[in-house]
Amino acid sequence: MRLQDKVIIITGSCTGIGKAIAERCVAEGARVVIHGLEPDLGETLVVKLGPENARLHIQDLADADAPQQLVTLALEAFGKLDAIVNNAAMVVSSNINTTDADFLRQVLEVNTVAPFRLIKEALPHLSRTRGCVLNIGSVNAWSGEPNLLAYSISKGALQTLTRNLGDTLHRENRVRVNQINPGWVLTEKEAQRKQEQGLAENWYEAVPPVFAPAGRILWPAEIAAAAVYWLADESGPISGQVVDLEQYPLQGRNPPKDTSTLATTTKPGFDTAVSKL
């Protein structure tokens, strides 16, 4: 039990990567606060994990009192706080032509400002337990896809937040801050997005090798397995680190020399992934 008796807040955990992290944390002995915007899915997850192991909070993270509500729930339900996982994010398509200042601010509020606010609210309690923060970023933090401009900006900012606080909070508060950057993950929402872009229901069974050398993209459970290391005491004093979780190197990777092969294998909806190369 690598997380025995730890209490962890996981934002955006009614579905996808957050849900997988919550399930794995409980399996490793932790108790969790589930958060999201889908009451039915959240309630189903709490029943699965057991009310003794999980509590649910439904609220938009952009709300001014959301961080306080989450921390208070953790303390009232379980008596302490050992870690927070900033996973919730707006994953929305936009480019320079479709992104205005108000839209960019909205994305930044959820994807970057909300994690900052939750860290600040939780800090006194994490200091008492010598706890940790795990931010869930994205490989798009490095540059991003053409149609994920606002999202990519927000994840780049989150990455800098992790590097900065990972140093300062570790020195001053004994709280570690690290980040994992998932690549392309087969979540429920990603499956739906690709269908909306014109792909077949089983599109993930035929992802071109240039995007998935392994023959498939990542699963949420694989991200959750990596998250446990950073939440557990076994990661020791490591802080301020950002780790990419993708099946090929993002920086320095070249597209295939035979672009005609790529053209014949690419399907509608896969085009935005090309810029990951």
From TrEMBL:
It comes from the Bacteria. Residues 257-267 have a biased composition (Polar residues). Residues 252-277 are annotated as: Disordered. Pfam families: adh_short_C2 (PF13561). Belongs to the short-chain dehydrogenases/reductases (SDR) family. This is SDR family oxidoreductase. It comes from Adhaeribacter rhizoryzae. The lineage of its organism: Bacteria, Pseudomonadati, Bacteroidota, Cytophagia, Cytophagales.
